[in-house]
């Protein structure tokens, strides 16, 4: 009896991964909603209507030139102007943003303006310069950590720059009246809190071994964020179809399962 129980347990343990891994979700890639989700730009002041190639994008934004939601002028402005009248040096009375920190915010801005992969995370908003934003986009933890470490000694006066800043017509943002400037390390404490809070939860930090977006990548081997967007789109289509859509089980997995059961029965009789 003990041998039979052990054998049964072994069968269950062996069959579960076989049956689970053999289930495949069939996505109808011809569905126009699929293309729309993967080939779209957010509805905003500077974004193109649809992503496409650009002959040239400025400096840090250049990795997106093969398929981009931004123009060359937008990327130039991202490097050399206060876009949306937002001043990163809002604690200039103590310290301007360092160059090593600034380059991360420029890269983040390039991602915001240029990425064609935001369809799965796009939500509606209502303000002067955009009707959509992205929300809780998975950001690889290593990108977030490097960003935070390079800004740790820079200064800010509030954690959520979207919700907490005061806005002066014609002048832009300024620190809230009851605030004082402290280092990023003091304000945010952790890299995760910084990345997720600074832009009002545009980002959600994920371990590098999960599906996550890269702010920095080598465009000569393609945009790794394309695959993340495709993965998320499949998840959304699954949910739309009630938790899986059509499913199929491969013959090889069924055959493996049958062999395991047969061998188990043989050993159980010994």
UniProtKB/TrEMBL annotation:
Please tell me one Gene Ontology term that the record gives under cellular component: external side of plasma membrane
* InterPro entries to which the protein is assigned, alphabetical: Folate_rcpt, Folate_rcpt-like
Give the Folate receptor-like domain ranges. 40-213
Reply yes or no: does the keyword Signal apply.
yes
Where do transmembrane segments lie in this chain? none
The UniProt keyword set, sorted, is: Disulfide bond, Receptor, Signal
What residue range is the signal peptide? 1-22
Recorded GO molecular functions are: signaling receptor activity
Alphabetized Pfam families for the sequence: Folate_rec (PF03024)
Say which family it is in.
Belongs to the folate receptor family.
| Name of protein | Folate receptor beta
The species this protein belongs to is Folsomia candida (Springtail)
